[in-house]
Amino acid sequence: MKTPNHIVLAMLLVCMTANLFNVVLVASEKxxxxxxxxxxxxxxxxxxxxxxxxxxxxxxxxxxxxxxxKNNLKLMGEDPNNTIIDGNQxxxxxxxxxxxxxxxxxxxxxxxxxxxxxxxxxxxNNIIINSTCNSCHVGISLKNSNGNKIIGNTIINNSEGIxxxxxxxxxxxxxxxxxxxxxxxxIRAYANNNTVSENIITSNWYSGVYLSLTNGNTITRNNIxxxxxxxxxxxxxxxxxxxSGNTIANNGEGAHxxxxxxxxxxxxxxxxxxxxxxxDVSLVNLWDNGAEGNYxxxxxxKDTEGNGIGDTPYVIDAKNQDNYPLMSLxxxxxxxxxxxxxxxxxxxxxxxxxxxxxxGIYALKIRRKA
Length: 370
Prior knowledge:
Number of domains: 2
CATH architecture of the largest domain: 3 Solenoid
Radius of gyration: 24 Å
Strand order of the largest sheet: 1-2-5-8-11-14-17-20-23-26-29
Number of helices: 3
Distance between the termini: 51 Å
Mean pLDDT: 88
CATH class of the largest domain: Mainly Beta
Structural class: alpha/beta
């Protein structure tokens, strides 16, 4: 016997109402700390908060240096363009020494000469999203920190944009804009197995992505344009890195490889770089995946079979060649991309922070009226 549709609908509404009630109860258990309405400074609110709480910061300029040592804290600015934390050209602006911290909606600017905008040390599974780092020595720096996500930020006018260093592994740098830094992204010193994807990396002075003494990283689906060097691989320990699906265009050198081997390049578009690939010391790297290679704007071979693959290899030097050069630009099929995408996950997380904060702020207003 089938249950009537109106009874099913009523049951669904009851369940939805119960779930919403549970959400409100859970949200109400977590406190919202308002700056500057309740606390004069952001650090005072952080010090007063407990794990799981949210610090909500209204628009304004705050001359502060923050240290976060509590896990599961959420730090949310009202508007990334107008909620500004200014380091006053001293020290590091925001230091995170905790796990599972979410930060969104700020402009971080003017660190000291050796300071960072964001600095994570022994800090895991955090997310920095929808923020700007401007005029710092380093925009975002990670040391001994794993599983963090840096998504949807603007990193501009810093000496170095983003650094992953000293055993920082399994981090994600995705959907960011990095421009007008000296170096955009620097992965070094045994910072292995990180993912750099779908970033716009343009008009940084020296390099777009710099890999030194690091292996197992995935550099994919980035636009890397207008640098002295697009991608730099340095040192014999920089091995087994996967560089695929990128557009590397209008750089002095598309890729610079110094004593690095066993890296794989495929499905990249090398376009109008003064020198497509430069070797200081030539070692063997792979320039195709066994079926398809890269697009080279200066390749002059033929495709007599009409299969989109050049008949002759693209020769880079005596030890390196692309055996399957593409005859046309590699285009990403967004319905079947290579590797993970993170922007949906970031949007869901940011929305959950906003909803939780909104419920808490609304409850706070009700209590005040009462």
